[in-house]
Amino acid sequence: MRAMAPRAPAFGDPRTDPWQGSLTMTATAQPSRSAHPERPGRSDGVCSEFTVFTEIKPGHADALREVLATLADAADDERVHAAVRQIGTLHDARHVIFDNDTRFMFASVFDGSWDAYIDDFAKTVVGERFDKVFSHSEGFPGISDPGVKDWFVAHQAPAGVFVSAYPDLTVQQIYKDHRVEEAFEEVLDTPEFRAALENPANAELVATPAFQKLLEEASA
């Protein structure tokens, strides 16, 4: 086998794609007890929760339901997923109408600071979604309004308990791990790799615990 190239980033190392270099949207890579101690919400490692409860304007429940149905349409899915990937800090999000069509909940899990999370959404098509959805809530000033953060804080209810299944992994690290796994699986399927494993010249490398662990994880 050829001499090893300079060390590539390890599994889980934070990564910024070239196209992200000009963007201000970034994910934190450093785990901490609280990603935003000055804001409401709980954190577990690098992950934080954001839960907002609002009062639906009288008679607006059906209109809100129609907006949510439109946003869930597959035709809009590609734009939204592209924006979410551009933001690069959102793990998941959900919208719920409850209490006999009188109240609305938006809940999500994200990486990094609370303020950057709100700012980043306002810069993408997701901000348009926020305006459409929350326009049916009492008092919502608009995602671009200077007072929108104060409005969210006033309607945010911190979770009593918040637990992440992967508290030390940011969205960017999860993206990268998935890309590395796919790339490695492709390498495993090549005859060249199999030949390298069977080559006596590589026996010492193949026998190392680290290499054996890599093969075990790939076959799991």
UniProtKB/TrEMBL annotation:
Domain of life of the native organism: Bacteria
Region ranges (Disordered): 1-22
Protein name, per record: Uncharacterized protein
Organism: Streptomyces bungoensis
Origin organism lineage: Bacteria, Bacillati, Actinomycetota, Actinomycetes, Kitasatosporales
